[in-house]
Amino acid sequence: MSEQANNQMCNKNQELKLLIKELKEKKGQIARQFKDVTTGSDAHQALIQSMQGVSEKLKESEAELKARVKATKSKKNTQKDVRPFPPLFRPLKETYSGEISVKKLVSSNEKDTWWDYVAQAKHASLYHSKAIYEFYKTQPHLKYEIFGAWSQDGELIGGMPVVRMTTPLFGQFAVSLPFFNYGGPITSCKRVFASLIEAYDQHARSVDDKYAEIRTSTKIDRQASTKKVSMLRALPETVSIFEKQVGAKVRAQAKKAEEYSPEFKVGSEELLNDFYKVFSTNMRDLGTPVEHKSFFRSLLIKLESSARIAVVYVNNKAVGAAFLTTHQDIMEIPWASTLRSANKMNINMWMYDNILKYAITEKFKWFDFGRSTQDAGTYRFKKQWGAVPVQHYWYSLATAQNNEQSLNPDNPKFKLAIALWQRIPVWLANRIGPFVASQLP
Description:
By secondary structure, the protein is of the alpha+beta class. It has two domains: 87-227, Aminopeptidase (3-Layer(aba) Sandwich), CATH 3.40.630.30; 229-390 and 409-437, Aminopeptidase. 43% of the residues lie in helices and 22% in strands. The chain has helices at residues 3-33, 42-78, 108-120, 130-136, 190-206, 239-255, 272-286, 293-303, 347-361, 377-383, 415-421, 426-437, and strands at residues 100-104, 142-151, 156-167, 171-176, 212-216, 228-234, 263-267, 307-314, 317-327, 330-338, 366-373, 388-391, 393-397. Strand 2 (142-151) and strand 3 (156-167) form a beta hairpin. Helix 4 packs antiparallel against helix 8 (293-303). Residues 401-405 and 413-421 have low confidence and may be disordered.
């Protein structure tokens, strides 16, 4: 609402309040006159008509004021931030009509050109960066490949990193990109984007990959799985505005934890042990194998200031923890957990409340709650914080016939394995879990 419109509304409301005050005073004056007239007389009937007219006008004015106040509150409460999404999530609008040549980058000069391109590309995520490439080099069972798209003039106009995994448990497959929320081609042109996926489809078939999966938030004219969404929230400039936006119900739920005197810390490798203890315990409870602690240590080292750990303590014991990453003006939370024993304390709500406020004080403009399955419990949890969904498109290539061949934990064929995993001790889950998790994309 513009300032001028807001002032006009305030003036109108003030006029109604004054009118209502005058009408009430007039009702009082009329009421006092009844004692001076004879019941049933013409004067008495005239007073009755006057009282009815004033009462009707008062009722109309009060109803109008109530409706206007309600409408004003409704507009304030439902007013949405119309900021455009970060470039990573925006449609590709540039066009290119020339010839496109796609090939795997082999020489060091080609790769240097690629890293320069990634550093300047607005549609690139943190996971397309050279730091993540260096991280992948520390992980088993995989090979990192880059496919570049070149214009007819020899200019690099797009590219796509792909991680090919050769695993003892699941055989050979490829994903762009495993372990993380974002991957796929980087380009500003949809035609180039489609050409990269088509070219890699042919390549994957030629090397007999069991399947290949390209995970992205860009839609093209190709069949894709749409089960996953990112949950994004625009962040206001101040914590006080944020508290007004989330509303009293969410604030009250977060505050319930305060009776247990929780402590919130943000740091780096010094908090890794506490993070991993909470995370691995909760993931065992959910039936999901977790990566080795060295996975997260390597990420902290390679990402440097772009990675942080948040931990919540109660009585000096870690009960909630999150791994945070930052890129451009976005803070993301790819991994978070709280202990089941802390559920009664509402620690999860309190932790997210503090993380969001931390992101605001650090001047980030967006908070990325990470990937969720639409309408699942985590989706609803994130939505209550004001997050909105951004659609993911996962393109299955090579010999994959349908989404059931995917190694995603949502796959129904993993239900039995999940149920069994929930019953093993944490120490055993942490011993054998990393071997399994390192082979899952």
